[in-house]
Amino acid sequence: MASKTKAANAAAAIANNIPRTSFTILEFCAMENISESFYRLLREAGLGPKEIRLGRAVRITVEAAAEWRKMFSQQSTQDAFNKFLQERKEQRSRRKQGS
C-alpha cells in the first residue's frame, strides 16, 4: 500500500469529519490569516501561541489557538507587541549607526 502525503491525509480527515486537535504553524498562520514571518515575530516577542514539539514537528493545539486569540485581543497584549516592535526598531537603528 502506497503511503499518502500529509496533504492527502489531512484532506481525508476533513472528508471523514475527523475533528482537528492541532495545527502546524503553516495551518495556524493560514487559519489566522497571518504570514509565517509575522508568526515568528510574535514568537520572538513571547506573544505566540503555546507550541507542542514532537521531535522536529511543531503543533499548536486547538485550545492553545483559542487562548492565543483571547490573549491577543486584549489591549495590553497589543501594547506589549507594539513596544517590542519599537524596541527592535531602535536596536536596528543603533546597530546601523555603530557600523
List the helices and strands and how they pair.
Blueprint: H1 6-15, E1 22-23, H2 25-32, H3 36-44, E2 52-54, E3 57-61, H4 62-72, H5 75-98
Short description:
This protein has helices spanning 6-15, 25-32, 36-44, 62-72, 75-98; strands at residues 22-23, 52-54, 57-61. It has 99 residues and is mainly alpha-helical. The model has no long low-confidence stretch (mean pLDDT 87).
Task: Give an account of the 3D structure.
This protein is mainly alpha-helical and 99 residues long. 63% of the residues lie in helices and 10% in strands. It is built from 5 helices and 3 strands, in the order αβααββαα. It has a 3-stranded antiparallel β-sheet with strand order 1-3-2. The N and C termini lie far apart (59 Å). The relative contact order is 0.10. The mean pLDDT is 87.
